[in-house]
Amino acid sequence: MSESRPPLPPFSREAALRKVQAAEDAWNTRDPHRVAMAYTPDTVWRNRDTFVSGRDEVVAFLAGKWARELDYALRKNLWAFDGNRIGVRFQYECRDADGQWWRSYGNELWEFAGNGLMARREASINDLAIDESERRIFGPRPESEHGVEFPLR
Q1: What is the helix (H) or strand (E) element at residue 25, kind and residue range?
Q2: pLDDT tens digits, 90-99
Q3: What secondary structure letter does DSSP report for 48?
Q4: What is the residue-wise DSSP string for 49-110?
Q5: d(Cα 117, Cα 5) in Å, to the nearest integer?
Q6: How far apart are the C-alpha atoms of 141 and 153, rounded to whole Å?
Q7: How far is 142 from 136, CA to CA, in rounded Å?
Q8: Tens-place pLDDT, residues 18-65
Q9: Residue 127 and residue 12: Cα distance in Å, rounded?
Q10: Which of 64-68, 95-99, 149-153 comes out lowest in average pLDDT?
Q11: Under the phi-then-psi rule, with left for phi > 0, alpha for psi from -120 to 50, and beta for the rest, what region is 73?
Q12: Residue 130 φ then ψ, to 5°
């Protein structure tokens, strides 16, 4: 049996919104193995200046990321979609081992295989040091806020 991760391309607006929320929910678990299963076995990524190929490298990358980025919490919003591609903008907050809080802003370009697994992910991300009192993201998004645009500032 082949793997499948609905919704499948080509994406409608509703399906693209569901795909974005599913990705946000999975990443907020901070479980590298769970997240990796949403990608094709031969997925390719660019994350900032790091290049990742295949699920095993995805798991290793995410395990290292979440070991450094403590109390990680993420929000994603749909930016655009067409056929088997989705563009998102996102923000996440985390703290480092020294207690410094960070807000990271980014954009991702996603390309999906016909079975709904992500074959390609390219992420550009910028980091902003913030005071703990400036935090806006606290854990996973409540269901009542699914699909609600997250403000830029």
Answers
A1: helix 13-29
A2: 999 999 999 9
A3: T
A4: TEEEEHHHHHHHHHHHHHHHSEEEEEEEEEEEEETTEEEEEEEEEEE-TTS-EEEEEEEEEE
A5: 6
A6: 17
A7: 13
A8: 999 999 999 999 999 999 999 999 999 999 999 999 999 999 999 999
A9: 32
A10: 149-153
A11: beta
A12: -130, 160
